[in-house]
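Subject: design request, 70 residues
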Protein backbone atom coordinates (compact mmCIF):
# COMPACT_ATOMS: atom_id res chain seq x y z
CA UNK A 1 0.00 0.00 0.00
CA UNK A 2 1.14 3.53 -0.74
CA UNK A 3 2.80 5.28 2.26
CA UNK A 4 0.62 8.39 1.94
CA UNK A 5 -2.49 6.24 1.95
CA UNK A 6 -1.21 4.26 4.95
CA UNK A 7 -0.62 7.48 6.89
CA UNK A 8 -4.14 8.73 6.09
CA UNK A 9 -5.62 5.43 7.20
CA UNK A 10 -3.52 5.45 10.38
CA UNK A 11 -4.69 8.97 11.21
CA UNK A 12 -8.34 8.04 10.57
CA UNK A 13 -8.22 4.98 12.83
CA UNK A 14 -6.49 6.88 15.61
CA UNK A 15 -9.04 9.72 15.37
CA UNK A 16 -11.95 7.28 15.51
CA UNK A 17 -10.39 5.47 18.44
CA UNK A 18 -10.06 8.72 20.37
CA UNK A 19 -13.60 9.86 19.43
CA UNK A 20 -14.92 6.59 20.83
CA UNK A 21 -12.74 6.92 23.96
CA UNK A 22 -11.07 3.59 23.21
CA UNK A 23 -7.56 2.78 24.31
CA UNK A 24 -5.56 0.62 21.95
CA UNK A 25 -6.25 -2.24 24.36
CA UNK A 26 -10.01 -1.65 24.12
CA UNK A 27 -9.95 -1.49 20.33
CA UNK A 28 -7.77 -4.59 20.30
CA UNK A 29 -10.33 -6.46 22.39
CA UNK A 30 -13.32 -5.24 20.36
CA UNK A 31 -11.71 -6.00 16.99
CA UNK A 32 -9.92 -9.19 18.04
CA UNK A 33 -6.65 -7.81 16.65
CA UNK A 34 -3.43 -7.85 18.67
CA UNK A 35 -2.64 -4.52 20.32
CA UNK A 36 0.84 -4.54 18.79
CA UNK A 37 -0.72 -4.96 15.34
CA UNK A 38 -3.06 -2.02 15.99
CA UNK A 39 -0.07 0.03 17.11
CA UNK A 40 1.67 -0.75 13.82
CA UNK A 41 -1.48 0.18 11.90
CA UNK A 42 -1.82 3.50 13.75
CA UNK A 43 1.80 4.36 13.04
CA UNK A 44 1.58 3.28 9.38
CA UNK A 45 4.39 0.77 9.82
CA UNK A 46 2.68 -2.13 8.05
CA UNK A 47 0.26 -2.73 5.22
CA UNK A 48 -3.19 -3.69 6.41
CA UNK A 49 -5.26 -6.55 5.03
CA UNK A 50 -8.89 -5.90 4.24
CA UNK A 51 -10.15 -8.41 6.80
CA UNK A 52 -8.42 -6.48 9.59
CA UNK A 53 -9.88 -3.19 8.36
CA UNK A 54 -13.32 -4.77 8.39
CA UNK A 55 -12.81 -5.93 12.00
CA UNK A 56 -11.76 -2.42 13.01
CA UNK A 57 -14.79 -0.89 11.29
CA UNK A 58 -17.10 -3.33 13.09
CA UNK A 59 -15.45 -2.48 16.43
CA UNK A 60 -16.36 1.17 15.82
CA UNK A 61 -19.87 0.21 14.68
CA UNK A 62 -19.35 1.68 11.22
CA UNK A 63 -19.13 0.32 7.70
CA UNK A 64 -15.85 -0.32 5.95
CA UNK A 65 -16.63 2.53 3.54
CA UNK A 66 -17.09 4.91 6.50
CA UNK A 67 -13.75 3.82 7.91
CA UNK A 68 -12.10 4.54 4.57
CA UNK A 69 -13.76 7.97 4.21
CA UNK A 70 -10.69 10.17 4.60
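Subject: RE: design request

Done. Sequence follows.
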Amino acid sequence: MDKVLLRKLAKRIKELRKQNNFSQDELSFRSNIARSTLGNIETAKNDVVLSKLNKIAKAFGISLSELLDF
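The chain has five helices and no strands.
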